[in-house]
Design goal:
alpha+beta, 3 helices, YaeB-like fold, 25% strand, single chain
Length: 131
C-alpha cells in the first residue's frame, strides 16, 4: 500500500483499493500529472489544479487531468497527520455531462471509510516508520 523510502518532510502515501493499479493503466502524461499532484500533497502543499471534492468535507481533494478528449481524476485526502491517502483514481465517463457518476461517488465514500479505519488502526506508527 506504500512505496519505499521517503524524503525528509514527506508524508507517507497510501493507495486504497486498486488506485495505484488504476493509475498505471492511464496514459503516461496522465500518470505524470496526477502523480505530481499527489507528490505536492505529500510535502504539505496543494497542486494548482487541485480542488475540493464536494460532499466529504475539508481535506478531500480532486485533481483532474485532461488528455486528448478524456478526463482522468484522482481523489485523495490529507485529513490525517503525516499521511496522504489516494482513495480513487478513474477515467470520468459520465453519461450526464460534468456530473460524476454515482458509482464513483459511492466508491470514494467507501474508500474514505477504509482510509479512516486504516489511519485509526495505525496512527501510532504512521510517520514513524520509514519504509
Amino acid at each position: 500500500m506504500t512505496r519505499g523510502k521517503r524524503a525528509a518532510g514527506e508524508k507517507v502515501l497510501y493507495w486504497v483499493g486498486s488506485c495505484k493499479q488504476d493509475l498505471m493503466r492511464f496514459p503516461e502524461a496522465v500518470q505524470d500529472r496526477l502523480g505530481a499532484a499527489l507528490s505536492v500533497a505529500q510535502f504539505g502543499g496543494k497542486h494548482p489544479h487541485a480542488k475540493p471534492w464536494k460532499g466529504e468535507g475539508a481535506g478531500v481533494l480532486e485533481i483532474v487531468a485532461e488528455y486528448r478528449t478524456d478526463a482522468f481524476r484522482a481523489i485523495y485526502t490529507v485529513q490525517f497527520r503525516s499521511t496522504v491517502y489516494a482513495v480513487h483514481v478513474f477515467q470520468k465517463k459520465s453519461p450526464h455531462g460534468a456530473k460524476t457518476p454515482l458509482s464513483d461517488v459511492r466508491l470514494v465514500r467507501e474508500r474514505l471509510k477504509l482510509a479512516r479505519a486504516h489511519y485509526e488502526e495505525h496512527k501510532k506508527t504512521i510517520g514513524s516508520d520509514r519504509t
